[in-house]
């Protein structure tokens, strides 16, 4: 049933884009299309703004916290170089977070049902915006503006549910611009995602960290779990001064990675977790299955021991269309979100 629904959603999405292409082919005036696009964008941002205001007011009224994790879904999949299933991930992750098979406390004892720990402002309506013919330059701006709207409501801090990894660029850009300076980034992934442009797409999920580094949004970038990297990936890493920790040397690097201290002298720390950083034995529901990855407890040890002021985070590249029947990877993604929540909230 779930797979049939996902196929139906994908078909609807394609029809929307095809409809717009048909309108363009029929020479609909450009100003008419632009006005319509602007209305949809304004409505989308208004929805995020009002949800964030409501949740921010609630948390401030309850008091007693400096930082609250706030879920923001960005269901974007079209910048993937292989499969677009990550666009369907945010609702599956939410479903798994609140699954009755486990309790609502994190390993560190944070209670997720407490709105001072976790709130949710909903999703950026990516497909609806794209159906209006909005290009990726403007879409990335909408994502950035949505993140900033969340951050305006102190003490909310964005915990973003992807989506493919292209979303990390507009999210990190927004965080850096809103805080007024660069952040340190801890990036867990099988791939460095630092191509200058992959298959001609500067917004490819394989190019997000090139955009981040060339924009000056990060001072320090640590990439952990890497086991699928090309010569360009290594050259780009050297160009931007990236600290790349490959799985082939993980045993040697483990002690360092499990005792990280980041963020001194910058505006905070951003954590980006691509689910394919995990070995597929733990998380088979990803587009790019790459054996030889981190165990789930490896990731937990890195997160739990990290000394940092985590100002924002994302979990990306979970592909529900490749998950097991029992939704194992959805539960893994949800557990990552739960533990990131504990890391952010205080």
Automatic annotation (TrEMBL):
<feature type="binding site">
    <location>
        <position position="274"/>
    </location>
    <ligand>
        <name>Mn(2+)</name>
    </ligand>
</feature>
<keyword id="KW-0661">Putrescine biosynthesis</keyword>
<keyword id="KW-0378">Hydrolase</keyword>
<feature type="binding site">
    <location>
        <position position="189"/>
    </location>
    <ligand>
        <name>Mn(2+)</name>
    </ligand>
</feature>
<comment type="pathway">
    <text>Amine and polyamine biosynthesis; putrescine biosynthesis via agmatine pathway; putrescine from agmatine: step 1/1.</text>
</comment>
<dbReference type="GO" id="GO:0004053">
    <property type="term" value="F:arginase activity"/>
</dbReference>
<comment type="function">
    <text>Catalyzes the hydrolysis of L-arginine to urea and L-ornithine. The latter can be utilized in the urea cycle or as a precursor for the synthesis of both polyamines and proline. Possesses agmatinase activity. Catalyzes the formation of putrescine from agmatine.</text>
</comment>
<feature type="binding site">
    <location>
        <position position="193"/>
    </location>
    <ligand>
        <name>Mn(2+)</name>
    </ligand>
</feature>
<feature type="binding site">
    <location>
        <position position="165"/>
    </location>
    <ligand>
        <name>Mn(2+)</name>
    </ligand>
</feature>
<comment type="similarity">
    <text>Belongs to the arginase family. Agmatinase subfamily.</text>
</comment>
<dbReference type="GO" id="GO:0033389">
    <property type="term" value="P:putrescine biosynthetic process from arginine, via agmatine"/>
</dbReference>
<dbReference type="GO" id="GO:0008783">
    <property type="term" value="F:agmatinase activity"/>
</dbReference>
<dbReference type="InterPro" id="IPR020855">
    <property type="entry name" value="Ureohydrolase_Mn_BS"/>
</dbReference>
<dbReference type="Pfam" id="PF00491">
    <property type="entry name" value="Arginase"/>
</dbReference>
<feature type="binding site">
    <location>
        <position position="191"/>
    </location>
    <ligand>
        <name>Mn(2+)</name>
    </ligand>
</feature>
<feature type="binding site">
    <location>
        <position position="276"/>
    </location>
    <ligand>
        <name>Mn(2+)</name>
    </ligand>
</feature>
<keyword id="KW-0479">Metal-binding</keyword>
<keyword id="KW-0464">Manganese</keyword>
<comment type="pathway">
    <text>Nitrogen metabolism; urea cycle; L-ornithine and urea from L-arginine: step 1/1.</text>
</comment>
<keyword id="KW-0056">Arginine metabolism</keyword>
<protein>
    <recommendedName>
        <fullName>Arginase</fullName>
    </recommendedName>
</protein>
<dbReference type="GO" id="GO:0046872">
    <property type="term" value="F:metal ion binding"/>
</dbReference>
<dbReference type="InterPro" id="IPR023696">
    <property type="entry name" value="Ureohydrolase_dom_sf"/>
</dbReference>
<dbReference type="InterPro" id="IPR006035">
    <property type="entry name" value="Ureohydrolase"/>
</dbReference>
